[in-house]
TrEMBL record:
<keyword id="KW-0472">Membrane</keyword>
<dbReference type="InterPro" id="IPR017978">
    <property type="entry name" value="GPCR_3_C"/>
</dbReference>
<dbReference type="Pfam" id="PF00003">
    <property type="entry name" value="7tm_3"/>
</dbReference>
<keyword id="KW-1133">Transmembrane helix</keyword>
<keyword id="KW-0297">G-protein coupled receptor</keyword>
<protein>
    <recommendedName>
        <fullName>G-protein coupled receptors family 3 profile domain-containing protein</fullName>
    </recommendedName>
</protein>
<dbReference type="InterPro" id="IPR028082">
    <property type="entry name" value="Peripla_BP_I"/>
</dbReference>
<dbReference type="GO" id="GO:0038039">
    <property type="term" value="C:G protein-coupled receptor heterodimeric complex"/>
</dbReference>
<feature type="transmembrane region" description="Helical">
    <location>
        <begin position="147"/>
        <end position="164"/>
    </location>
</feature>
<keyword id="KW-0325">Glycoprotein</keyword>
<keyword id="KW-0675">Receptor</keyword>
<feature type="transmembrane region" description="Helical">
    <location>
        <begin position="100"/>
        <end position="127"/>
    </location>
</feature>
<feature type="domain" description="G-protein coupled receptors family 3 profile">
    <location>
        <begin position="103"/>
        <end position="181"/>
    </location>
</feature>
<keyword id="KW-0807">Transducer</keyword>
<dbReference type="GO" id="GO:0004965">
    <property type="term" value="F:G protein-coupled GABA receptor activity"/>
</dbReference>
<dbReference type="GO" id="GO:0007214">
    <property type="term" value="P:gamma-aminobutyric acid signaling pathway"/>
</dbReference>
<feature type="region of interest" description="Disordered">
    <location>
        <begin position="1"/>
        <end position="20"/>
    </location>
</feature>
């Protein structure tokens, strides 16, 4: 073991000599520790041998020994590793791309509600344009009402546009729809 730092004194405040103690610990190595050789790397991580255990049944059994110095795993002379389904598991996550579709029932019901809403908007727009000379309509700001109604119409249209997916369209028409969505009737409605 290395000698203790010469700066240590009983009057020293906690944390004063932490870096010097840390460098001393990093330099230590015990060849005959309780669990075999023990040391520390430059980051302060333990170097030595680690038991590899696996839960088999109701008990933990030793299935190997990993040596961090040589970075080797030894399984000779230990209990055999048991894998679920007797197959070695994948060593990475498996990813796959799947197309998600909107349920036809949901699309039809929402498109129906949107169409009813668009029909009502058109009725109100025609009413507003036909009776724009009436005093009551003039007082309600007919131009502002028309803009609001057109915004509502675009919002109802966006419900249908966002409900259409690759299930109902060809790839080419779906690309065109994505372009329309980029210009986004919903954002224009506001």
């Amino acid at each position: 073991m290395a000698a203790e730092p010469s700066q240590c004194s009983p009057e020293a405040k906690p944390g004063t000599h932490g870096s010097s103690l840390q460098s001393i610990f990093r330099g230590q190595s015990f060849e005959n520790g309780n669990v075999g050789p023990v040391g520390f790397d430059h980051s302060g991580n333990r170097i030595g041998q680690c038991l590899v255990l696996q839960a088999q049944g109701n008990e933990m059994v030793q299935v190997g020994l990993y040596d961090t110095r040589s970075q080797t795993l030894s399984t000779d002379g230990y209990t055999k590793i048991k894998w679920f389904g007797n197959k070695v598991p994948r060593d990475s996550a498996r990813s796959s791309k799947t197309q998600l579709y909107l349920s036809p029932g949901i699309f039809v019901s929402m498109a129906t509600v949107a169409c009813v809403g668009m029909a009502l908007v058109l009725v109100f727009l025609i009413f507003n344009l036909k009776f724009k000379r009436l005093r009551v309509i003039k007082l309600s700001s007919p131009m502002m009402n028309n803009f609001i109604l057109l915004g509502c119409l675009l919002a109802y249209m966006s419900v249908i546009l966002y409900g259409l997916d690759g299930q109902y369209l060809t790839e080419r028409s779906f690309e065109a729809l994505c372009t329309v969505r980029t210009n986004d009737a919903l954002s224009l409605s506001f």
